[in-house]
Amino acid sequence: MSAKPQSTTITLPRGALDLTYQTHNKNDNTYQLEDLLGFAQRINPKRAFLFVSKVLGRHIPVAPSIMRGAFTDLANLVPDNLPEPILVVGMAETAVGLSAGVHQALQTRYPDALLLNSTRHAQHNKDNDEALFTTFSEDHSHASQHLIYQSRDKNIQSQLLASRTLIMVDDEASTGNTCVNVVSALRHAGLSQLKQVHLTTLVDWSLNQEATDQEVTDNSDHISTRMPNIDFQRHHLLSGAWQWTDAPNPEPITMPVVDTTEAGSQPLGNTGNWGRFPTLDSTDGFDGYLERFQQAFAYFDDKPNFDKGKLPKRILVLGSNEFVWLPFLLAEWLEAKTKEVSQNSTVKFSALTRSPIALGGAIHTMLSFHDNYGLGMTNFVYNVEPKDWDLIVLCVETASDSVDSMWQGLDNVLVVGADL
Q1: N-to-C CA span, the chain
Q2: 117 alpha carbon, distance to own chain's centre
Q3: Which of 130, 247, 302, 310 is deepest in the core (most CB within 10 A)?
Q4: Is 230 within 8 Å of 183 (Cβ atoms)?
């Protein structure tokens, strides 16, 4: 059941964003606009505005339990009795944790569903390059090119190629073009058996709208016609349409160089397979990473400012770029631990990102620093004041000493790396 459409205007330095939207009441959970989104200005000449999720744990720190609830509520919108095999695809970098959470929830009904995330980090090993499956473009993004890898496991690869249902997971859809690009690339790469595509997003802004006293309508014809012989469906917590109007004489902007799919000079450690390659088990690697955290925290716990043997009161876990799923599971583990001992603690999750965003709106603070991958690019973290946290657990998939000296110089930061 959908509520009556509402309208609002968001004013940003480079223009105005007019929104018409409606909430959806299904599975007894209704998310309002203010529950899901804030708004900010992109440092990007392609698109001047950004929808800033309040449940994703990317640009705004969020409690892991709130994130898990959104993952599960979104997964519950996907229908039963879908044609199998099922492939869940997530979009780097923002939605790779969301896709894993949706995939994990879906496995209660579809235990054999595969997870496969796109990546912007070229994958190598000591013997040879990993086998690239396909590429596609996200045209409006700050980093448009995406890579998708295949599996070395013959059974997993056979299941991938036999996929009949694709569940594409992203934080938001603005036009639907990226979905078409993904489906076209996968079909061209060999997924010839696809029968259904389900665009599954927290918020879908790619819907057309009729009069203001009618529902925002799901007019999928413009997407369906570009995906012949595919049954196309959408699932979302909130839907609507947007219209952008430039401000008079907006100031020109220069976007940092972040559009690369190079591997970087810092090698990736062994963190298992959480979706960069097709996988049935997105938690592969978590036990080892949890052990790394526990070992690192045992040393950190000896510092004089800490009450030995107890978790601090205010804990922030930070993932890094695409490496967010195992860090999220760690944050969730820490949140459960604090409740287990009836400890009045706050645990939240957020992440470092290559996405350049201007201060203002939903972005209150910004820290910039060198990336830990050795790509020579600037990374950012938003809405994080280090002094506000007793402990910041910075999780990276490179060696611990690969992080910028800014982090290494903070007494309350514990770096958990994937040291080789």
Answers
A1: 51
A2: 10
A3: 130
A4: yes
**32-91: per-residue pLDDT in tens?**
999 999 999 988 777 889 999 999 999 999 999 999 999 999 999 999 999 999 999 999
300-358 residue pLDDT tens: 766 766 677 788 999 999 999 999 999 999 999 999 999 887 778 899 999 999 989 99
Read off the pLDDT of residues 214-263 as tens digits, 9 standing for 90 and up: 445 555 556 777 787 899 999 999 999 999 999 998 777 776 666 678 88
**Alpha carbons 391 and 397: distance in angstroms, whole number:** 19
Q: Report the alpha-carbon distance of residue 348 to residue 57 in Å, rounded.
A: 8
What Å distances lie between residue 41 and 13, 92, 355, 364, 384, CA to CA?
Answer: 7, 20, 11, 12, 18
Residue 271 and residue 397: Cα distance in Å, rounded?
Answer: 7
Tokens, residue 141? 């993004």
Residue 283: phi, psi to the nearest 5?
-90, 0
What residues contact residue 406 under an 8 Å CB cut-off, 6+ apart? 367, 369
Bond prior to 93 in cis (omega within 30° of 0):
yes
Enter the tokens of residue 304.
């004089």
Number of Cβ within 10 Å of residue 265's Cβ equals: 11
pLDDT, one tens digit per residue, over 364-380 is 999 999 999 999 999 99
The residue to which tokens 């097709």 are assigned:
278
Cis peptide bond N-terminal to 85, omega within 30: yes
| Domains of the chain, residue spans | 286-416
Q: In what order do the strands lie in the sheet with 231-246?
A: 6-12, 15-23, 231-246, 196-204, 165-173, 86-90, 114-117
CB 355 within 8 A of CB 303: no
- In order, the DSSP letters of 297-325 are HHHHTTSTTS-TTS--SEEEEEEETTB-H
Pick the residue with more confidence: 48 or 9?
9
| CA neighbor of 378 nearest in space, from 322, 328, 321 | 321
Answer for the pair 5, 215: CB distance below 8 angstroms, yes or no: yes
What angle is formed at CA 301 by the lines to CA 348 and CA 418, rounded to 5 degrees? 65
